[in-house]
From TrEMBL:
Membrane-crossing residue ranges in chain numbering: none
Apple domain ranges (all copies): 23-99
Signal peptide location: 1-20
UniProt keyword annotations, A-Z: Signal
Family annotation (SUPFAM superfamilies): Galactose-binding domain-like, Hairpin loop containing domain-like
F5/8 type C domain location: 128-287
UniProt xrefs under Pfam families: F5_F8_type_C, PAN_1
Lineage: Eukaryota, Metazoa, Cnidaria, Anthozoa, Hexacorallia
Keyword Signal recorded: yes
Protein name (database record): Lactadherin-like
């Protein structure tokens, strides 16, 4: 386990104390700013006024101060959870509000097969099992927990969209069991949703196409998940929606390890491009949240 200060000092740049009467625990880096996370921007008289504004704003975790223009930007995140967003800017000074706890840290600070976990102002790298699914394939997750945006017809219900599922009717009867989920229309944005039962860390996903009968599969998809304020948001990397290259045939399993874990109970596979018809089988991988 390491303190936030320890993590900061291990980064490939030097942090300096700021001359500020009321911010003894603040650290800063000149010529850097954090982009994509600005809550508000205003003009101030000096750095301390910028710090005071951050201190009085609950969601402020760091700030960008521009000495020449006296502009102050309050950030809703920090480089601890968004390292790729810390960029060079010759006029800016980036500072961390050290007394604020950080909810998440980036997995980029940890080795492969481990995740970064924040506890108050401490972080540690925890093992996370990538080899085991969260229960879609194994049927640990019940049918009622797998839902969808629409279904084309009977026999194509969302709970049939389990990885490695196959029609169990002989002879094959598409109206009884297609062995997959098929959307009601070929429209970008159709989705297959999984309720994982409780909040977990999602670290990897996998998909297949329709197993039998018709050549149908999703070629590209994105992910959406329910966040802490109970609304669904797109999974993004560097502020851009992550598009996953999916299937090119009906049966091959295509897996993707997520660049950054997702903390959620609900996750959606959102169809972007497809062949024949939007048909899918899927699995979600991850680990329990360490206590």
């Amino acid at each position: 386990m390491y303190s936030v200060l320890g993590l900061l000092m291990s980064l490939p740049f030097i942090l300096h104390d700021i001359s500020c009467l009321d911010c003894p625990s603040t650290y800063t880096q000149t010529n850097f700013i954090l982009k994509h996370h600005v809550l508000s921007s205003t003009t101030v008289k000096n750095y301390q006024e910028c710090y005071d504004k951050c201190a009085s704003t609950t969601d402020c975790h760091s700030m960008n101060f521009y000495d020449r223009s006296q502009r102050c930007e309050l950030n809703k995140g920090s480089h601890l959870s968004n390292p790729v967003d810390l960029v060079y800017n010759e006029q800016g000074t980036y500072s961390v509000h050290d007394s604020r706890s950080v909810a998440t840290c980036s997995d980029k600070y940890c080795s492969t097969d481990t995740i970064c976990v924040m506890k108050s102002n401490n972080f540690e790298c925890k093992d996370c099992a990538f080899a085991f699914g969260m229960g879609v394939d194994s049927r640990k997750i019940p049918n009622s927990a797998i839902t969808e945006s629409s279904t084309v017809r009977s026999g194509h219900e969302p709970w049939r969209g389990r990885l490695n599922n196959f029609p169990n009717t002989t002879p094959y009867n598409v109206g009884v069991d297609a062995g997959c989920w098929s959307a009601g229309s070929n429209t970008a944005g159709e989705y297959l949703q999984v309720d994982l039962g409780h909040v977990v860390y999602v670290t990897m996903v996998a998909t297949q196409g329709r197993p039998y009968g018709y050549k149908q599969y999703v070629r590209k998809y994105s992910l959406a998940y329910k966040n802490s304020d109970n609304s669904f948001v797109d999974y993004k990397i560097a502020n851009n929606v992550k598009i996953f290259q999916a299937n090119t045939d009906m049966t091959t399993i295509v897996t993707h390890r997520l660049p950054e874990k997702i903390k959620t109970q609900y996750i959606r596979f959102v169809a972007r491009e497809w062949y024949g018809h939007i048909s899918m089988r899927a699995e979600v991988y991850g680990c329990q949240i360490p206590v």
